[in-house]
Amino acid sequence: YEAVAEADAQARAGGAVDNAVQARLRASATYATRVATDAARFAFAWAGSAGLRPGIIQRCLRDMLAASQHIYVDNNTLTGYAQALLADAAPAE
User: Fold this and answer.
1) Residue 66 burial (C-beta neighbours within 10 Å; 0-12, 13-18, 19+)
2) What local confidence, expressed as pLDDT, does residue 90 receive?
3) For residue range 36-71, what is the model confidence (pLDDT) as tens digits?
4) Which residue in 54, 64, 74, 79 has its CB near the most CB atoms, within 10 A?
5) What is the pLDDT of residue 50?
6) What angle do CA 79, 67, 56 make, to 5 degrees?
7) CA 31 to chain CA mean position, Å
């Protein structure tokens, strides 16, 4: 929520959303997608053989597994976030 609020504030101020905030947004989306995928896997595992039949649990798992492969939330987002953090931490010349 904080990353979205910060991006919104920058956009409303009329400026472009800076790279560090964009990287934070992507890292947040990556984390949220991973948590949701874990929850879908948990539900599928606890559903037993019922999870194999067409239904909401199977659909949620398939959707989350597909979503987790999207380029917007792949592992490179975390690398990009680390690079943005390091760039912000670098001393000014």
Assistant:
1) exposed
2) 61
3) 999 999 999 999 888 888 889 999 999 999 998 888
4) 64
5) 84
6) 150
7) 4
The sign one gets for the Cα dihedral 14, 33, 51, 58 is: positive
Specify whether the CB–CB gap between 57 and 51 falls below 8 A: yes
Which of 40, 22, 38, 37 lies closest to 77 in space, CA to CA? 22
d(CA 59, CA 63): 6
Tokens of 46: 């606890």
- Report pLDDT for 19: 82
Structure token pair of residue 24: 């934070």
Enter the tokens of residue 30.
Answer: 């990556």
C-alpha to C-alpha distance for 10 and 25, rounded to whole angstroms: 13
Could you give the CA distance from residue 67 to residue 29 in angstroms, rounded to a whole number?
11
Tokens found for residue 93: 């010349």
Q: Using an 8 Å Cβ cutoff, are 10 and 17 in contact?
A: yes
